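Thread amino acids onto this structure.
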């Protein structure tokens, strides 16, 4: 078998893939931050008091930074060394995103958005590939999810 049969004719642009999600605390929505897919409020803490919480995506500069999965954690205590509580100032539980970097995967995250809904959602919005559990679980108000799109990565997987 020739190498051209197993190697794609092109390589992915590493800068198309997400490497981190920054949590920003600021009254007004900063430019370049994550939107809500229905053009609703993108403040994660909306309706819950506390700080205004916005998300900003950063893109990979090397393969070891690629994000293969995102998951959400709600807990009773702060995670030492983390300053990215999604519920900062609301006096309730602490809420965090975790990003996985499993290089054995072939698809990685390229885009994220928030999805605010008046009811629990089991499925995904059209054209989206993954979502967290409800960020507002155990809080009143909207159901809120982080959704993402993935794309196959063609290229070296080592730095």
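Threaded sequence (159 positions):
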């Amino acid at each position: 078998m020739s190498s051209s049969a197993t190697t794609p004719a092109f390589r992915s642009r590493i800068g198309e893939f997400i490497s981190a999600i920054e949590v920003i605390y600021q009254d007004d929505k900063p430019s370049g931050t994550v939107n809500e897919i229905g053009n609703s409020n993108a403040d994660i803490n909306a309706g819950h008091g506390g700080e205004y919480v916005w998300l900003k995506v950063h893109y990979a500069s090397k393969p070891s930074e690629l994000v293969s999965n995102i998951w959400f954690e709600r807990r009773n205590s702060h995670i030492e060394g983390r300053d990215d509580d999604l519920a900062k100032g609301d006096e309730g539980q602490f809420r965090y995103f975790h990003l996985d970097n499993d290089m054995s995967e072939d698809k990685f995250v390229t885009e994220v958005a928030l999805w605010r809904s008046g009811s629990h959602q089991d499925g995904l919005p059209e054209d989206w590939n993954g979502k967290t559990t409800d960020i507002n679980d155990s809080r009143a108000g909207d159901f809120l999810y982080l959704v993402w799109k993935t794309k196959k990565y063609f290229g070296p997987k080592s730095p």
